[in-house]
Amino acid sequence: MIGYENYRRACAAVALVVIALPLRAQSPAIALDPTLSFEVASIRRNNSTEAGAEMRIEPSGQVTIRNYTLFHIVRNAYGVQPFQIVPGARMPDWFDRDRWDIIAKPPDGNVSEEQRIAMLQNLLAARYKAVVKRETRELPVYALVVARTDGQLGPQLRRSSGECEAARAARASGAPPPTVQRGFCGTRAGAGNVSTSSVPLADFARNLAPLTGRFVVDRTGLSGRFDLDLKWTPDQGAGAPNSPQTDGTSLFAALEEQLGLRLDAQRAPVEVIVVESAERPVED
């Protein structure tokens, strides 16, 4: 069974990019279309000591994975956060340790993203003998709420002016879009900073999940779209409201000071991916 410390460290490694969309699957077993498969797929164990890893889709539609553990390949294939992957009773101890290189070419470059993800899931089932099921479990979550009892928001959280909506409407009609004062619409994020322009707080809350190690649900009661600018000092892993911060403002403190919002620890049903078992593949 996978070691607890390795599993905890894997769950804290939230910097990898998810390329997948969650697959709408039947419970308890995840149903796959067996006709969707890569034309050619090469799998080799990566024995290097390099720290970098990547997963990308080439212009040809080829999926290239370099130096990923099976933990993170499964995470991307099912479009979930690290804390949503639960080890099953027969989880091998190398699940989050051994690293792999995969080059997988689809039959043609015109497959959809969902088809490509189904191909990756089928590849895991065929080559790694991965047995996966989807469950709902009661897990810790954070609720994003307004911090002050009088409802006053922080200085870096403002209701959107409507510029982005006007730009979208103009683009849809074929007219030249007007200039947006903030220079962008949507979300921009970096290490220790997030800015949004015309984004609902429900979307902002979901983007906090990789930073906190838990699902974050919007319970502010604030409708509409917002502009915000949030800056904090990143720590080494998933945060916690009382985590010691020695080098700057924590995410939790920044939310309250800059946005007037707070994260309350609660419990709620969360969908998880249970990986019952897996085997090392035959390399080629």
Tell me the Rg in angstroms. Answer: 21 Å
First-residue to last-residue Cα separation: 27 Å
What structural class should be given to the helix and strand makeup? Answer: alpha+beta
Tally of discrete structural domains: 2
- Fraction of residues in H or I helices: 10-25%
Total helical segments: 7
Q: Show unreliable segments.
A: 1-29, 236-246
Shape by Cα distribution: globular
Question: What is the N-to-C succession of helices and strands?
Answer: HEEEHEEHEEHEEHHEEHE
Q: Please tally the β strands and state the result.
A: 12
The portion of residues forming beta strands comes to: 25-35%
Mean pLDDT score: 84
User: Main sheet?
Assistant: 4 strands, antiparallel
| Widest beta sheet: strand line-up | 1-5-3-2
Protein architecture, described:
This protein is an alpha+beta fold and 284 residues long. It folds into two domains: 4-138 and 271-277, no CATH class; 153-259, no CATH class. The protein is 23% helix and 31% strand. It contains seven helices and twelve strands. The protein has helices spanning 4-12, 70-78, 113-127, 163-173, 201-207, 209-212, 251-259, and strands at 40-46, 54-57, 63-69, 85-90, 99-105, 131-146, 157-159, 186-190, 193-199, 215-218, 226-231, 261-277. The strands form three sheets. It has a four-stranded antiparallel β-sheet with strand order 1-5-3-2. The chain has a four-stranded mixed β-sheet with strand order 4-12-6-10. Strand 2 and strand 3 (63-69) form a beta hairpin. The protein is globular and about 60 Å long. The two termini are 27 Å apart.
